[in-house]
Amino acid sequence: MLIAFLLAAAAPDCTYDRAAMMALPQQAFDQDTTGGWRALSMRGCEAEAADLIRDWRETNKPERNASILYWHEGQLRADLGQSAAAITLFERSRKTVEEDHGMGWNLYVDGSIAFLRRDRAAFDQSRAALAALPKPDGFDPRGPDGKPIEIRWPMNLNVLDGFARCWDKPYKEAYTICSAPFRVMKAGG
């Protein structure tokens, strides 16, 4: 009886207003950390958040920037140990050369897929190619306020380096603990 109570008390509240979520524009749905799917995920509701991304994408059928929705759903599926589903979604997140603008997105995708497959040779090849990627001409990252920000180059190399350090760990642990993926420093600091 006590164990059932403790388990129920520890379970996250995964309820949300589905109609409101589905009505959000893509930027708010995908990038707002206090709303959209991210708020649901931060409560420990990764499966519900992954399903919500899928449902939002299928309902709203975005013509632009859909690749990031496949990526984010794939990350949640990888966190849940659903590697085959994550790989399929990661594959769908690939960008054309024109969409990528020399940022190395597909190399990051390749490295992430290789990590999930535990294919060290393919992973090392993707990581080396990303590490060797030259910074694109005109690379001038700006924050939401329009001020310059410093971003480590190449982008996402720190994530692949974290995967290399934690090769035998699950995706979620390797990504969150070993990679420090969201470390962005302001210019001059």
Architecture overview:
- With 189 residues, the protein is mostly helical.
- It is 59% helix and 2% strand.
- The protein contains 12 helices and 2 strands, in the order ααααααααααβααβ.
- The protein has helices at residues 2-10, 18-23, 26-31, 36-42, 46-60, 66-79, 83-92, 97-100, 105-117, 120-131, 157-165, 171-176; strands at 149-150, 185-186.
- Strands 1-2 form a two-stranded antiparallel sheet.
- α4 (36-42) packs antiparallel against α5 (46-60), α5 packs antiparallel against α6 (66-79) and α10 packs antiparallel against α11 (157-165).
- The termini are far apart.
- The relative contact order is 0.08.
Count of helical stretches: 12
Overall mean pLDDT:
90
Cα shape? globular
Strand content: under 5%
Key descriptive features of the protein:
189 residues, mainly alpha
Topology of this protein?
Layout lengths: L1 H9 L7 H6 L2 H6 L4 H7 L3 H15 L5 H14 L3 H10 L4 H4 L4 H13 L2 H12 L17 E2 L6 H9 L5 H6 L8 E2 L3
Antiparallel strand pairs: 1-2
